[in-house]
């Protein structure tokens, strides 16, 4: 079982939250929630009409082999719940998605090495926080919980702690757990 205190949000970070991420407490637990992320051309990826856990979702266009559709991703940091508007045809082989902006079609894929043990995937989905300097990198492999926050003005160690927050989807047999 996961120690719930591993998911505590360091208080130092709450004091220097980057634009686009909000903090709140619910039932004695604290959460970071993505309020706004953008494509490289500045289109917001947030969708108000599709909600998970009561919050707007992050919509990305995805291509899995010949299939195309959208993912609506939970905006709670460390959660990996999501909805689909298509049914991905999956088999046992690892699947790496290609993500794009649903507005302008620009690729969201960048290179970054996933640090989750046993993954190492290099294809990552880039979600840009408002202002363009702060970024979220999400491992492109379906089922992998790998994600990393990059905040220019925050101490490196602190941001590392945030990147380690994962509530769900850390189990290998949860195929849909990641992203
Ligand atoms: Zn765009
Ligand atoms: Zn990964």
In percent, how helical is the residue content? under 10%
Give the N-to-C terminal Cα separation.
21 Å
Question: How many strands in all?
Answer: 11
Weakly predicted, low-confidence segments: 1-6, 169-177
How would you sum up the major sheet? 5 strands, antiparallel
The hetero compounds bound to this protein are:
zinc ion
What is the rounded Rg?
Answer: 15 Å
Number of separate structural domains: 1
Number of helices: 2
Protein architecture, described:
With 179 residues, the chain is mainly beta. The chain has one domain (4-163). It has two helices and eleven strands. It has helices spanning 11-15, 156-163, and strands spanning 21-26, 29-34, 46-52, 55-64, 67-73, 82-84, 98-100, 109-111, 123-128, 135-139, 147-150. Strands 3, 4, 5, 6 and 7 form a five-stranded antiparallel β-sheet that branches. A hairpin with a 6-residue loop joins strand 9 and strand 10. Bound molecules: zinc ion (2 copies). Residues 114, 116, 119, 121, 139, 141, 144, 146 line the site of one zinc ion.
Keywords:
179 residues, mainly beta, 7% helix, 11 strands
Write a brief structural summary.
The chain has 179 residues and is mostly beta strands. It is built from two helices and eleven strands; from the N terminus they run αβββββββββββα.
Strand and helix layout:
Blueprint (H helix, E strand, L loop, with lengths): L10 H5 L5 E6 L2 E6 L11 E7 L2 E10 L2 E7 L8 E3 L13 E3 L8 E3 L11 E6 L6 E5 L7 E4 L5 H8 L16
Antiparallel strand pairs: 1-2, 3-4, 4-5, 4-7, 5-6, 8-9, 9-10, 10-11
The structure holds zinc ion (ZN) (2 copies).
């Amino acid at each position: 079982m996961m120690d719930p205190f591993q998911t505590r949000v360091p208080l130092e970070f709450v004091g220097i939250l980057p634009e686009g991420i909000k903090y709140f407490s619910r039932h004695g637990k604290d959460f970071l929630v993505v309020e706004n992320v953008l494509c490289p051309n500045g289109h917001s990826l947030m969708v108000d009409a599709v909600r998970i856990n009561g919050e707007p979702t992050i919509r990305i266009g995805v291509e899995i082999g010949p299939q195309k559709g959208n993912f609506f991703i939970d905006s709670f940091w460390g959660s990996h719940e999501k909805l689909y508007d298509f049914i991905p045809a999956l088999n046992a082989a690892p699947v790496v998605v290609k993500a794009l902006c649903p507005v302008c079609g620009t690729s969201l894929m960048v290179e970054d090495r996933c640090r989750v043990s046993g993954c190492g995937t290099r294809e990552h989905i880039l979600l840009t926080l408002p202002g363009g300097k702060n970024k979220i990198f999400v491992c492109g492999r379906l089922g992998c919980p790998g994600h990393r926050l990059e905040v220019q003005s925050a101490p490196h160690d602190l941001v590392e702690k945030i990147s380690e927050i994962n509530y769900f989807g850390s189990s290998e047999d949860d195929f849909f757990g990641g992203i």
